[in-house]
Amino acid sequence: ESRRPLLACGDAEGRLEALFGRVRAIQDKSGRFDMLLCVGNFFGSPSDPEWTEYRTGAKKAPIQTFVLGANNQETVRYFPDSSGCELAENITYLGRRGVFSSTSGLQIAYLSGTESQDEPAPAYSFSSKDVTELKTSLLSTPNFKGVDILLTSPWPRDVGNFANSPGKINTKKHGSTLISDLAASLKPRYHFAALEKAYYERLPYRNHTVLQETPQHVSRFIALADVGNTSKKKYLYAFSIVPMSLMDPAELVKQPQDVTENPYRQSRKEAQKTTKALVCEEPACQFFFDLNKHQGKKRPSDGKERGNSQPKQAKTPSQPTGPCWFCLASPEVEKHLVVSIGTHCYLALAKGGLLPDHVLILPIGHCQSVVDLSPEVMEEVTKYKSALKEFFRSKGKRYVLFERNYKSQHLQLQVIPVPLDCTSEDIKESFITQAREQQIDLLEIPEHSDITQVARPGTPYFYVELDTGEKLFHSIRRSFPLQFGRAVLASPALLALPERADWRRCAAGRAEEARHIQNDFSGNVQELRNLDLYHQSLISWL
């Protein structure tokens, strides 16, 4: 049987009787385990009476035990050889950093100590050089896919992104950025850590970019509490694992239903941007927008389209199935809300807006979704987005745009500003977390990709776009909450306006809206009306 039963433990703090007593009880009930992996502080005070009995051989650990090194100066003396050694019968110190291959074929990477900015790092710490060397030793291995297990004492910084709550631990401030980088590179199937005196089993996360990379195995991060803690927090974790090297590739990359985005992807993206800029030439990027050349137009995919291609036939505009509230020629349009009119699109204040400067970008003629737009209309939409970005940035804000192509007959691009200190990661995390709570699979798609690459005409979908170009996408298969995009932005994590999550509760009469625009928002309306899309004045509906 290739599946191996293992135990992992948090900070033992020298409480070896309590730890090994618990291990014996588990083994008596469930059978023998291959090994015990200890992260965090294995030793407590410098004079540890319980340890003496194990060191001298008076007592013996009931299981093969592997431990990480010191996290403070006081306990350095327990680890005589920095490259690893046997501390007592059945108790082995792994060393400062490295990879341990078990007899069953498991590959276990480990890094002892806490993060240090100093070079060389103190005996109880690791530096960026240690992390780089550990990464290099593994990534240079032919056909490297990842490791089975990663052992560290500190948590990785940002591990709580896109995840279930880690409780009182603020993962944006606690933990090591070097360990985040290490975990992102080594792709451990299980990553154990401690030191925070807390138990946290994070939802599994992806190690590949959806729609961009082939599927890879998921990672599970588990933080364990301290042995014998009075709060009864979990400090011992039992699991079984088949070595990656023995698994069927299709079985290895299966994605569980509760899988989330990778919490460390932003740092990975920044590291990859330079590389991509160097290697991404025209043929490889044929599906990406070149925003520096012809905004909103696709690059040609090969030489045939570069000068002698036949012009494409214009799309036939779809017709509304009944009265349309958004076709500009329709008598149903509430023209007092219109801010500016271009050649193909217009800008209007949202009826019952989430905020006073919540606006809509809409095509003048009837069109159901972004996927159905002609290149000329798409180009003008792009110009509107660019102008709105500049406008909101001048106000200390950034916009979030979303479209729900579901139970709506005319394209509405909802554009809602949020404070500039709401980072892209904050916004994406809020959308992805709240989507997961409602069993909605909201995926990030490549930054400069065209939405038509992932959404087929006539297929319902929901998508979010940030003013940085980052996008999230969900293909709607059955039902979808109509107020989802607005509700996420209204939630406490972003605008904290839950009472305005439903536009119907915020709608006012025409006279009141007109009065509000004139009295409370006239300055912003005038600025929006002066948006310079074509480096010349726009015709405005006054």
From TrEMBL:
Region feature (Disordered): 294-320
GO biological process: mRNA splicing, via spliceosome
Ranges of residues in domain Cwf19-like C-terminal: 315-422
Domain Cwf19-like protein C-terminal: 440-517
Gene3D superfamilies listed in its UniProt record: HIT-like
CDD domains in UniProt: MPP_CWF19_N
One of the record's GO molecular function terms: RNA lariat debranching enzyme activator activity
Chain intervals with Polar residues compositional bias: 308-320
Gene Ontology CC annotations of this record: post-mRNA release spliceosomal complex
InterPro entries given in the database record: Cwf19-like (IPR040194), Cwf19-like_C_dom-1 (IPR006768), Cwf19-like_C_dom-2 (IPR006767), HIT-like_sf (IPR036265)
Domain of life per record: Eukaryota
The family this protein is said to belong to: Belongs to the CWF19 family.
Protein name (record): CWF19-like protein 1
Organism, scientific name: Anas zonorhyncha (Eastern spot-billed duck)
